[in-house]
Amino acid sequence: MDAFLLLGGCASSSVFTFGADRPADELRCEQRSDRVFAISGKIDDAMAACVRAKFQPTTRELILNSEGGNVSAALDIAEILEGKRLHMVVEGQCNSSCANYVLPLAGRITIRPGAVALLHGSIDPWTVEKFKRGRNEFLKLQAKAGRSEDRAVEAFDELIANTEALKARQAEFAHRNAIPPGWLLYREAGSDRVRGLADLPRLGRAFLVEEQMLRSCLSATITPYQEDLRRSVLNLPRRFLLSWAGVTPSGKARCTPDPSEGPAGVP
Question: Is the distance from CB of 263 to CB of 181 less than 8 angstroms?
């Protein structure tokens, strides 16, 4: 992915769609009963407003089917769910910002047959550094779009400032909820090594979370799903589709203790 696409996309959004059996629909969010709430579709400000307006404190189960979306909106939703330790059920997909910020708050996680959870990173120092290296390309593309140099520089500086603010907000959220840096695929500036994660495969634009990684990274009770995953998603035909989409199974990857550092960039 080139620097401009990174600057224009991942700084504000975290989305990865894979061909799940049941694609996200347009219901957005819905209080299905006094105990069951559902989130479906791309996470954005409208989704966050929907959750804020409709989520009831009696909720005990959260149905998830989202490809991810805007990081700030995902954190808005996650902050509503903090401390509730809901039973989260993934139907279809819970990817990117859904997996980064919502899934770690669960008290119990069930991933339905055919469903996936995908990770591809978060707002970390490595990403911010890469954004900054894309400055010249960003300015050239802005010039081609007819924007003045002063306005382009102002837009770039604003983008970096917003990204830095998101990085700090993510760090505070991760610290409050003991989310390990390995789950967020967290990298320091100048190094592409993921902190606090062992045996992560080297290839892949995104990683399909297998049961070992999920159990080692998150504190929730996990409903066993590895065998279902092998049959429905990791069978030979779908492994080809995964590879074609740039998705690598997490395999033996596992979160490891990192006693010298706190979660997600908090010393």
Answer: yes
CA distance 105 to 229: 22
- Structural contact between residues 29 and 40, judged by C-beta atoms closer than 8 angstroms: yes
**Cβ within 8 Å of residue 261, ≥6 positions away:** 181, 195, 196, 267
Give the tokens for residue 245. 């989409």
What is the residue whose two structure tokens read 């006094």? 34
Work out the number of other CB atoms within 10 angstroms of the CB of residue 8: 16
Residue 175 in contact with residue 217, Cβ under 8 Å?
no
Let me know if 129 is exposed, middle or buried by CB neighbors in 10 A (0-12, 13-18, 19+).
Answer: middle
Per-residue pLDDT of the chain (267 residues; tens, 9 = 90+): 233 333 333 445 555 665 544 444 455 899 999 999 999 999 999 999 999 999 999 999 999 999 999 999 999 999 999 999 999 999 999 999 999 999 999 999 999 999 999 999 999 999 999 999 999 999 999 999 999 999 999 999 999 999 999 999 999 999 999 999 999 999 999 988 999 999 999 888 999 999 999 999 999 999 999 999 999 999 988 888 899 999 999 999 999 986 555 444 443
CB burial of 137-171 (b: ≥16 within 10 Å; e: otherwise) equals: ebbebbeeeeeeeeebeeebeebbeebeebbeebb
Question: The whole model's pTM is what?
Answer: 0.87
Q: How far is CA 101 from CA 82, 152, 231, in A?
A: 10, 31, 28
